[in-house]
């Protein structure tokens, strides 16, 4: 029988790639989004497909889906600092009430649910690289706390539904991911750098650029999420690329890729910006037999082509 899958946050960057994956896999996909940071353009190629339905709905409100559901992937949430600093209450609500509604639905339908957590649960980490046993270093009352604590609460609620109601749950801790369908203006380092390079503006690096990140190409991430969903492991699993790079090196790689002669401009570091970020993916390797296969060089090339095409077609609106 065809599996029926609900994907929340489906019109966003990761959600739309998940829709592609499950449609390609022969599933019936119910895509849900309130379009607060996502866009239907990410899904328009799927709209004519009979196996695809779109529900314009806010997951912090009661969710009604007729019929059976096999899987729920709860990805609805603002994800970039620019977004969650602009809409802090909605961010807390989607992590808390949105997750509660999805878990209630999973219990009712006896569906397996996977929730999208984040490396931000580790905050500004005191352990490096970050493994799943590390409890994190988060400032609950800092500006980023709205996102980090919403996701930490999401994990607790998910485990409570698992332990007390026997719901079949999975938790993925996603590290920085990039690729086509990121928003040009979402404030994250990669689209910001590429956008600035394409517009001939200086690349802005925060602080001295020695802070590190690890960037995972979207196809690798989707494969990891898929394998985790199909596994029988209910505790959190890191999915990300351990290939760590300083933001300054990263900015120079983008300059090299775009062939642009602009300079790098330095701005003050935002409050509570993590200094280091690198996933320990031992668990994903051992449990899921997963590891990233797309190099940063290749992933950046594909992402640049996507943005260059958008820029030449539509300009930067
Ligand atoms: P995105 O902003 O592109 O997508 C999020 C989607 O959720 C958007 O389409 C938005 O409209 C929708 N949404 C937000 N609130 C909603 C609500 N109340 N009801 C219905 N829809 C709602 O972000 P993304 O990068 O695709 O991130 C998706 C998920 O992955 C998020 O939960 C995020 O926390 C998690 N994540 C992403 C990354 C990353 O690098 N992209 C890293 C860690 C975690």
- Spans of at least 5 consecutive residues with low confidence: none
CATH T-level topology of the largest domain: Rossmann fold
What's the pLDDT, averaged over the residues? Answer: 94
Bound molecules: nicotinamide-adenine-dinucleotide
The helix content is: 25-40%
What count of domains describes the coordinates?
Answer: 2
Shape, principal axes of CA atoms: globular
Order of helices and strands: EHEEEHHEHEEHEEEHEEHEHH
The number of strands is 13
The name of the CATH architecture of the largest domain is 3-Layer(aba) Sandwich
The number of distinct helices, counting runs of at least 4 residues, comes to 9
User: What about the largest sheet?
Assistant: 7 strands, parallel
* CATH first level of the largest domain: Alpha Beta
- Secondary structural class: alpha/beta
Quote the beta fraction: 15-25%
Order of adjacent strands in the largest pleated sheet:
3-2-1-4-5-6-11
N- to C-terminal separation?
43 Å
The Cα radius of gyration reads 19 Å
CATH superfamily of the largest domain: NAD(P)-binding Rossmann-like Domain
Can you describe this structure?
The protein contains nine helices and 13 strands. It has 317 residues and is of the alpha/beta class. The chain has two domains: 4-178 and 216-239, Rossmann fold (3-Layer(aba) Sandwich), CATH 3.40.50; 189-213 and 243-276 and 295-313, UDP-galactose 4-epimerase, domain 1 (Alpha-Beta Complex), CATH 3.90.25. It is globular, with a radius of gyration of 19 Å. The site of nicotinamide-adenine-dinucleotide has 28 residues, from α1, α3 and β5.
């Amino acid at each position: 029988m065809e599996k029926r899958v609900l994907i929340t946050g489906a019109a966003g960057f990761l959600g739309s790639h998940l829709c592609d994956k499950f449609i390609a896999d022969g599933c019936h996909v119910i895509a849900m989004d309130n379009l607060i940071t996502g866009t239907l353009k990410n899904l328009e190629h799927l709209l004519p497909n009979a196996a695809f339905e779109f529900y314009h709905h806010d997951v912090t409100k009661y969710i009604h889906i007729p019929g059976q559901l096999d899987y729920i992937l709860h990805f609805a949430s603002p994800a970039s600092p620019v977004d969650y600093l602009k809409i802090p209450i909605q961010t807390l609500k989607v992590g808390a009430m949105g997750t509660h509604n999805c878990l209630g639905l999973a219990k009712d339908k006896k569906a397996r649910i996977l929730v999208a957590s984040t490396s931000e649960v580790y905050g500004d980490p005191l352990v490096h690289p970050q493994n799943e046993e590390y409890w994190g270093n988060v400032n609950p009352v800092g500006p980023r706390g709205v996102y980090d604590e919403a996701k930490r609460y999401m994990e607790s609620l998910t485990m409570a539904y698992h332990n007390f109601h026997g719901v079949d749950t999975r938790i993925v801790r996603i590290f920085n991911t990039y690729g086509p369908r990121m928003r040009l203006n979402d404030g994250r380092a990669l689209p910001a750098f590429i956008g600035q390079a394409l517009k001939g503006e200086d690349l802005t690096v925060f602080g001295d650029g020695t802070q590190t990140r690890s960037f995972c190409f979207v196809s690798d991430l989707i494969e990891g999420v898929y394998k985790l969903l199909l596994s029988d492991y209910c505790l959190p699993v890191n999915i990300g690329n351990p290939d760590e790079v300083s933001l300054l090196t990263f900015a120079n790689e983008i300059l090299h890729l775009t062939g642009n002669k602009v300079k790098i401009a330095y701005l003050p570091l935002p409050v509570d910006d993590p200094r280091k970020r690198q996933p320990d993916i031992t668990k994903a390797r051992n449990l899921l037999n997963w590891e990233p296969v797309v190099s940063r060089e290749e992933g950046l090339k594909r992402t640049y082509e996507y943005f260059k095409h958008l820029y030449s077609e539509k300009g930067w609106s």
